[in-house]
Design a protein that fits this description.
- The structure is a single chain.
- With 289 residues, this protein is α/β, with parallel strands linked by helices.
- The protein folds into 2 domains: 84 residues, Chemotaxis receptor methyltransferase CheR, N-terminal domain (Chemotaxis Receptor Methyltransferase Cher, domain 1); 190 residues, Vaccinia Virus protein VP39 (Rossmann fold, 3-Layer(aba) Sandwich).
- Helix content is 40%, strand content 22%.
- It has 10 helices and 12 strands.
- Strands 8-4-3-9-10-12-11 form a 7-stranded mixed beta sheet.
- The protein is globular and about 60 Å long.
- It starts with a strand and ends with a strand.
- The relative contact order is 0.11.
């Protein structure tokens, strides 16, 4: 067992080092359970993020942790804990704003003409701490103000229970709300009674439009009971290898209505992937009728 010493607040802690063999075992398990790639360059990151978990469990080595993780009696719950620690969750309000402009100007008007008063079903896949689905709720609620009868529902999912808990609370520091237009801040945000805290909360009319739940993309059943009109799955598939990307997109396709749109991250492309979706704008794709 390799260990080093770290001093913090006058106390000395033992830092357990992860061997290459242990990293290979953990990275393979992560890939098998949730499809996330963990290349060798992520070894230091994985080691650092799991140090606290080892201390919390009173384990002295990564070998002990792997034995605990692979124990069938502990596996399911510990997998959730580990994924919370190792997943990266980067998001912002109105991130990649061109997407929301395209949604409002190019997708919603023809959808209303075709579908009338049917409820629009939207999925924020990989919602992190909630900024994306609440941004969608603002955009859609503003659109609804000029379209009598227009209604929508947003499902927001993530594999991390930690970020979903934050998202459900819908409380953010005001610095994170900087990208939100001032008129929408006034309309949809509630300031904390403690003005010194700098905290704001998403208003109840938007919170009521978003349902959050945990979802692992490798689950056999996504639990989606209604076909989808719009999917936002941005900066998510980059964490998967190509075969997994194809399988995921084929499954997304199976849950989309004819003519439905999927919005990908600006660092992602479906070029070369065997999925029957056509490009209609930069990183925006439509299901072939």
């Amino acid at each position: 067992m390799l260990m080093s010493r770290e001093k913090s607040h006058g106390f000395e802690h033992s830092l357990v080092r992860m061997s290459s063999r242990e990293f290979t075992s953990l990275s393979r398990f992560i890939y098998e359970q949730c499809g996330i790639r963990m290349p060798e360059v992520k070894k230091t990151m994985l080691e650092g993020r799991l140090q606290k978990r080892l201390r919390m469990l009173g384990l002295r080595s990564f070998a002990d942790y792997i034995e605990y993780l692979f124990n069938p009696a502990e596996n399911n719950q510990e997998l959730v804990q580990m994924i919370d620690l190792v997943t990266t969750n980067k998001t912002d309000f109105f991130r990649e704003p061109d997407h929301f402009d395209y949604l409002r100007e190019k997708v919603l008007p023809p959808w209303c003409e075709k579908c009338g008063t049917r409820r629009l079903m939207v999925w924020s896949a990989g919602c992190s701490t909630g900024q994306e689905p609440y941004t969608l709720a603002m955009v859609l609620n503003e659109f609804a103000a000029s379209r009598p009868g227009f209604d929508f529902q947003i499902l927001a999912t993530d594999i991390s229970t930690r970020v979903l808990e934050q998202a459900r609370k819908a409380v953010y520091h005001e610095d994170l709300l900087e990208p939100v237009p001032s008129v929408l801040k006034t309309k949809y945000l509630l300031r904390s009674k403690d003005r010194q805290s700098g905290l704001v909360r998403i208003g109840p009319q938007l919170r009521a439009k978003v349902r959050f739940r945990r979802l692992n993309f490798l689950d056999e059943d996504f639990g989606l009971r209604e076909p989808l009109d719009i999917i936002f799955c941005r900066n998510v598939i980059i964490y998967f290898d190509r075969p997994t990307q194809v399988r995921l997109l084929q499954r997304f396709y199976g849950h989309m209505r004819p003519g439905a749109h999927i919005f990908m991250g600006h660092s992602e492309t479906l070029s070369g992937l065997d999925v029957p979706l056509v490009s209609v704008a930069s990183t925006v794709y439509r299901k072939i009728q």
